[in-house]
## 1
Amino acid sequence: MRIQPRQHMLEIWRAVARQSFTQGVWRPGDTEGESSSVEDAERLLCLMYPATELPAFRLDAPDETAADVLAALQRVGNNIDIPQKLIGAITDFTRTHTDEASVPSFAGGRYFSAVDPTAELTPEQRALGVVDSYSMSITLSLATLGFLKVLTRKVHRKDVQEMAEKLEAATRTRLSAAMVSLLRSFTVNLFDADSPQGRAVCALVNQDGLSNRLVVHQLQQRLKPLRASIREYITLGLNVVGDLDNDNLLLECGWSWGLVQDAPPVDTTEPVGAQPKGLAHQVPYLYFTVVALDGIADLFSERTLTLGLLNDEQQRLAEALRLRWEITQQYWSMVARFGEERWPLEDIPWRATARVQESEYFSLSVAAILVQDLVRRRATDDDLTRTVAVMEELAVRAKITRRMTDGDPAIALHHPGVRLPLLGSESIGPPMQWTMTDFSAQLLKRTIQLCALSRNIESHDRLLRLAEQILDHLWKRRIPSGPGANLWDNIRAVYPQSSQAGTPLSWSMTERTVECMVAAAGLYEQPPIRSRTLNDIATALLSEASHLFGKEMMEPAPALEESVRNDLGDQLTVAEGKLRRARQIVDDRPGTACTLALQVLGQLDEIALGRRAASRGV
Amino acid sequence: MLVFAASDKGGTGRSVTSANIAYRRALGGDDVCYLDFDFGSPTAAAVFDVPGSLRGVETGGLHSYLQGTTVEPHRVDVWAESEHDVLRSRPTGAGQLVLVPGDRSGGEFTTNPATVRRCAELFLRLEEEFDIILVDLSAGRSYAVDMVLEATAREEFDALRVRWLVFHRWTRQHIIAAHGLVFGERGVVAGGVARGHEADRLRSAIRFVRAAVPDPESALFAHVPPPQAAWLRRCDQDLKELAAQLDIGVTKVLGSVPLEPVLQWREQLITDEDALTSRVANVRTRDALKRLAEALSGEKAWEPL
């Protein structure tokens, strides 16, 4: 299936509009009873994320909304209704997820489940915040702030203006609260090289079969600069247990699943309210780390800067987050590429070291961090090409590009999904877990990001083909009819043996697919990759064509008078234009230049043949 | 309701479109009066096909009234005097449709306090008698525009619904010109403010009408070669962006009338017969005119955001 972000996106929007609006009114989530701030944010982001990221899909300028976009959203209303409905829906969301003391809440809600299926989670547990929600709130808040900023320039109606102002204030608070929570969920875990965890890390990075002592030494060397940055700069909301100065200790950094135990409150002038005590163990989770990194990146995107969406205090918080973002990427990128021969990342599946658990999902998470780090470092194509093979392998192992066999264990990756025990949650009830079912969509997103990054024709092409295959697979997984039609996730369509009951609508899969489409739009923004070979050929062809054209022009000119003029003159004018155009684009689009030169050569030869036939006569 | 039809340039379809609006409103049951203030080149009579006043009336038209030589301007009952097949008899349920033409030898003239007073009195008098008074102003920033701005600045008009329609064609120059006519240094808004209008109120009473808009998706362009189609779409998009930048984007637009061959060749009313029976005109054009006439009094179009 060819990747056509605009068409795919419109199709998704049409389905989202049908699902989320009944006769033009935003429908609150139709989950029985328990909601989740993550799910509600995902639902809104399905509309808000493309609307902010893709100029073609913007909804904040009613004067400029594209006609096909309006047609897709016609269930919501016309170009003037849509922004107002969106303001209403986001206001609704903010109100629902703010507690009685006007403190924003980031409850995981029904997305949490008990490890023991017979146990019942307590309401306090369900109300716990989760990194997914913090991160998504950052993205959604920034999208909302930008949306309001552009929209209100054109709003004259008092009631709309008031609604927008109220929403802006609430969103700003929510953004600050999310940033503070993310700061307090960041953790640095120190451990001895001889501890079980230390040995697990060494085994993971030791792909070259070195002695344990040497690996520990190398690791310590590589960790030195990171350790120094953490000691010097990272203070806000972080409490490191253990001695950071002890060079013999190994470390791990990243995000835990929620607020970390003993994380000190962050001093801030923003009205974020009381900062609850943390519960989560000081253990970074790969999954939550990737989620946090994705959200934080939006804080210093070009859009955030140009629209000036952050106030001074928020900029201070963003700066603190950015530091953690950089260090975490450096750390995981270092671990993923450790050693000289084979990368630990290439040893699939990745083993999470703190808890003994291995999964393709973790390999994907590490690859995701690596991809972001490649972008950040403007890495060479060499590093990138190795990652391509990892992506392909993951697709094979997850049975996305291979057939599923009877009783295949790979089904578990998609359904019921990978489960993460949330360490620390057991202190106020039965142990909780978090389930990830979005492997395919995540894989597609990272493949597309990598593809956009690649400037090497071969790897670009491999990635594009892989992305198309994954999209095929994802597109099949849309719910065929009934509630949530054309949204996700109908696993049985691709894995008939799956034990999934019915076709429950999954907003997280839907939202991830939307993210994929946004990333895919970026694919076509860049010029096509230039081929040296084509460029050489085009130059040679152009040289021959120009020469022959010059020679043809030495022939007596065809008559200019209208009555006797024939097509010969026109033909030459067209040929000249084509040559000029070919010269212009030979560097950027050598393939097109070739075609133009070939057309001219063909035309010139017809004329030459005619002349030759004539000269052979008597 | 008092509606002024203005445009910066000629050939924008102002007269023909506003005559069509008047016709549609009358069909819908409103009592409509159409004042031909296009003193340079009166055309309304031709559109309504009332032969006696084709180039304006001999004497006693709007010019004579405003200059004080006649007490009451001449009125033409379109339903009674039109030669047009369809217009000749008043359809059931239709309201009055009255044309007040200019003088044949009229042309532009300067205004003084007395003409402004007469103008204001005329509007107030007609307002009592009709539901909709459509005033077709001549193109550009003419004396007529100044005169009506000054007349409507009087406090008697505070309680009246006064609206402005600015017509422009769908080209770069026309968009810029329409923006200039309304928002420019010597524009309608600035001119109104200088005569005592409240800027915000006046601004919110102005809407734009796009005329002769080539719609790249319409049947008219279904068979153009691909490069032409690509060109058309891009131009259309550029114009939309330009209009949005100049604050005359779709939120400020009351309606748009598609490019219509019948209107290109002849300034006439598009009747239902033209669109449905003889089918010389496109149904889309008829629908656009209908929607435009409805939007004139629909509150939604006038206070969108």
## 2
Amino acid sequence: MLNFTLRRLTGVSIRNLNQLTPTISSLGQILPRATMSQEAGQYPPIESAMRKALNTELKPVYLEVINESPQHNVPKRSESHFRVFVVSEKFNDLTLIKRHRLVNDTVKNALKEAGFEFMHALSIEAKTPKQWEPEQEPEKSPPCLGGHGK
Amino acid sequence: MNRICQSLRHPRYQILATTAPQSLLTRFLAADAATGAAVDKATMDKLVRTNKVVVFMKGNPQAPRCGFSNAVVQIMRMHGVQYDAHDVLQNESLRQGVKDYTDWPTIPQVFINGEFVGGCDILLQMHQSGDLIEELKKAGIISELLKAEEAKQQDDKAK
């Protein structure tokens, strides 16, 4: 009973975290999903390298790569802030941290090969097919607070 | 739920973060900031053990400079965790040092009992699943959410 209640208490998404206490209202702002315009499946270079590597390495059941750079104080058409939502069998026996490491390393190697530095921010949701509900949307990122630099 | 909200509004829970012991900070700030080199592993080993929970973030808990760092601060606040916070924006050598130490490319980074737990995404998922309460318990920290729930159950029994 306690465990169930705890999970009910702590099973809070970033969307409604602000309902718990006023001190955390800034987390709950739902920001519009920011994606760059694509023409005929063409993606900007960094996003393209990421997608290719993640598809090759993880053979995902579902993959979503969202460029959130427009939500941040960066030049237009920047590719500095990304969110990755990926569902793959490869995560089946991996802990959360190992899943994230796998995604980080895949992206890092792909960008290095393509001659890019690692991006400023990469947010990851890595799920197994069993954990994934197809209608589920990725979490929204919290608002930018102006932290600067690489 | 209301009880939890009220308890978390209590001034006692508003500022739970502290800075690391000054001597240690001064030592690497002076040495590494001067050379521009990343903070070395030995210093990092000490830094991540200055408290049961240590957070490397952008800004400080009173004024986070990044939404992801802010999210970590708020989760810690909800659980009533006392922790040491290090602002990587104040020191480039610390920023690079912690990334090298964990082989993790982004900030914030959270350590519990000297062990790297993850960044904002992992902490949020642990919070959602209830795993964070368990992880804190292993470190000898009882989450305020757990305390509030137990208090509520006691009240219900009394009625």
